[in-house]
């Protein structure tokens, strides 16, 4: 049981808002991550086990096989102990929450839907279809219409994504 007290000690040290990882969080962000972590760490052992991760997936109605759970643990578990420590959890969560993209990356994402349109532009109907069909957060037709109503299009019914990205991402 020495490892349990060691994990609890590590968990307590993490509560002091200083992480040994290179992730820079505010005290409030770290507190929020700690609350989420503690909800998943049901046995309060200071780490998230494969079983606890599987329970989380079930709770979220995400069908994940044992092999997929193993892959998730493997991607996150930097110290190779088969479980997810708070610092490992924070590193992944912060990366997801604070994901940032360059203007070039955003333009490349738009370019996929350019089709036969002139470079840097997307036909409105292609943008509508992309928003309804692709991605994990697909929009309803009504949501797409609301969004499209807010977009400037040129006289040819084209959305100039280069101008849009440059305007939105300027410093």
Describe the protein's architecture and organization.
This protein is mainly α. The protein has 2 domains: 2-97, Recoverin, domain 1 (Orthogonal Bundle); 103-168, EF-hand (Recoverin, domain 1, Orthogonal Bundle), CATH 1.10.238. The protein is 56% helix and 6% strand. It is built from 9 helices and 4 strands, in the order ααβααβααβααβα. A two-stranded antiparallel sheet has the order 1-2. Helix 2 (27-40) crosses helix 5, helix 6 runs antiparallel to helix 9 (161-168) and helix 7 (124-133) packs antiparallel against helix 8 (141-148). The protein is elongated.
In short:
By secondary structure, the chain is mainly alpha-helical. It is built from nine helices and four strands, in the order ααβααβααβααβα.
List the SSEs and their pairings.
Layout: H1 2-14, H2 27-40, E1 47-48, H3 50-59, H4 66-76, E2 84-85, H5 86-97, H6 103-111, E3 121-123, H7 124-133, H8 141-148, E4 158-160, H9 161-168
Antiparallel strand pairs: 1-2, 3-4
Helix pairs in contact: 2-5, 6-9, 7-8
Record keyword descriptors for this entry.
Recoverin, domain 1; 4 strands; elongated; mainly alpha; two-stranded antiparallel ribbon; 171 residues; 9 helices
CATH 2nd-level architecture of the largest domain: Orthogonal Bundle
CATH class of the largest domain: Mainly Alpha
Uncertain runs are 1-21
Helix content: 55-70%
Supply the number of helical segments: 9
